[in-house]
Amino acid sequence: MELFGSSGVRGIVGASMGPELVVTIAKAAGTVWDADRAVIGRDTRPSGQMLAAAAASGLASVGVDVVDVGVTPTPNVVRLAEAWAIPGLIITASHNPARFNGVKLVGAAGRELSVDALERVEACIDHD
Known about the structure:
With about 130 residues, the chain is α/β, with parallel strands linked by helices.
């Protein structure tokens, strides 16, 4: 499965993007990160709160404590991940229309995830 594009996973909410997928992605990311804590932020899209709650549930289910900073610009989640030396998950579909939403993953210390790490996240999803 090739789920992740260059800017994470995006889709139309209620079709290819929904809470079930976000829980699955978050569980896989939390497993690959092997971190005790992660930060979650979201943009202002109507579906953001629902998908952030799903992400928090997925991370918590694999033992990751979540710091949910709510509505915040994407670069702020990256900055917080770097400052706190923890990974992050961002609920956003960037420039796409409001019916879309998505998930971006940020590695520990605010670094972009490597191709290898994304492949490991996808492998966890494929086996879920």
